[in-house]
Specification:
Distance between the termini: 17 Å
Number of domains: 1
Structural class: alpha+beta
Order of helices and strands: HHHHEEHEEHEHEHEEEEHEEH
Number of helices: 10
CATH architecture: Alpha-Beta Complex
Radius of gyration: 19 Å
Strand content: 15-25%
Shape: globular
CATH class: Alpha Beta
CATH topology: Sulfite Oxidase, Chain A, domain 2
Bound molecules: ligand MTE
């Protein structure tokens, strides 16, 4: 993001053919939209034929009706969500990620370690964790700092459920998340040596405990694809997308604000808080509007909302803070 001030607008013809034409997905999406539109009863959104070995399998997703598509939106098509990605461990090319992340990278089994200021340091297998806490589906807006956006049906669970298991002590003021660093698996570590690998991110404790803060293990009822951060990634819908770290291997509770990859790479461009704010421009581009991927043909520019539309839910967390200073 530091080196790409302008995002190249994708053409539909550049999207992967195989998924663009996968009828089962289109059919399923129609069913999902129908069920979301009706907003009635329970909607089991698992796509038939989903891979048999990943964290969502066997744990059907039930739509949580508190988190329906925001008014005036509908979920972005699966082919766009999984065909236009940022995952710098593999490549900075958004269309290449889906290929590079599927060249033998193994995401099963997958362990997350939890440490730092906790009563119970933990080492957890992701499948066991999902079995224990269960999963639900929530539809959230997703807004990248590069001024594009999607509306994504995530499957997963509230981060607070995992935090409760680790029992942080009173010294825990922040949470730090880390992604894998395996140079054999992903070329980005060698190709982009200036980044402070592994990719890390952080939240303040109250942000981490917020009801909206989610760990995703699936999309549209299917196990989360490699390119979207398999097998487990963070989703913080009121913050710019780079806070939503993929493929988490460690979670540490700290007493100091943790360093993060983007804040280290460009402190004047990527703040620690990174709340979506149309009133604070990125030094190199406006944040007032966004490209809604997959709408109006392919791309439509719509106004960006404060806290990405979640102002009512989260504004209180930042009372008294100057959000121009703490961007
Ligand atoms: N997590 C890791 N580990 N590596 C990354 O490069 N990119 C971030 C975020 N999480 C990134 C990451 C950025 S910039 C964005 S916008 C989102 O993931 C993109 O998520 P998506 O590809 O699922 O849309």
């Amino acid at each position: 993001m530091t080196k790409a001030p302008f995002v190249r607008i994708p053409k539909p013809s550049e999207l992967p053919e195989s998924e663009a034409t996968e009828e089962s997905l289109h059919r399923n999406r129609r069913e999902i939209i129908k069920s979301l539109g009706l907003a009635a009863g329970t909607s089991l959104l698992a796509i038939p034929g989903a891979s048999a070995n990943a964290a969502t399998t066997g744990f059907p997703t039930k739509l949580n009706k508190k988190y329906l598509p925001p008014k005036g939106t509908k979920p972005t098509e699966y082919k766009y969500i999984t065909g236009y990605n940022n995952f710098y461990e593999f490549t900075t090319d958004k269309y290449e990620v889906r290929f590079r992340a599927n060249l033998g990278w193994k995401t099963e089994p997958w362990t997350i370690e939890i440490g730092g200021h906790v009563e119970k340091p933990l080492k957890l297998d992701v499948n066991d964790l999902v079995k224990e806490v269960g999963i639900e589906q929530r539809v959230y807006r997703f807004r990248c700092v590069e001024a594009w956006s999607m509306v994504i049906p995530w499957d997963g669970f509230q981060l607070s459920k995992l935090i409760a298991k680790a029992k942080p002590t009173s010294k825990a003021k922040y949470v730090m998340f880390s992604t894998f660093k395996d140079e054999k698996t992903a070329l980005g570590f060698k190709n982009y040596p200036n980044y402070d690998w592994p990719y890390t991110e952080g939240l303040r404790m109250d942000e981490a405990m917020h009801d909206l803060t989610f760990l995703a293990t699936g999309i549209y009822g299917k196990p989360i694809p490699h390119q979207n951060g398999a097998p487990i990634r963070l989703v913080v819908p009121w913050k710019y997308g780079y806070k939503s770290i993929k493929s988490i291997v460690r979670i540490d509770f700290t007493d100091k604000q943790p360093k993060t990859l983007w804040n280290t790479a460009g402190p004047d461009e990527y703040g620690f808080y990174s709340n979506v704010n149309p009133e604070v421009d990125h030094p190199r581009w406006s944040q007032a509007r966004e490209r809604a991927i997959g709408t109006g043909g392919f791309v439509e520019r719509i106004p960006t909302l404060k806290f990405n539309g979640y102002e009512k839910e989260v504004a209180h967390l930042y009372k008294g803070m100057d959000l121009r200073k703490f961007f």
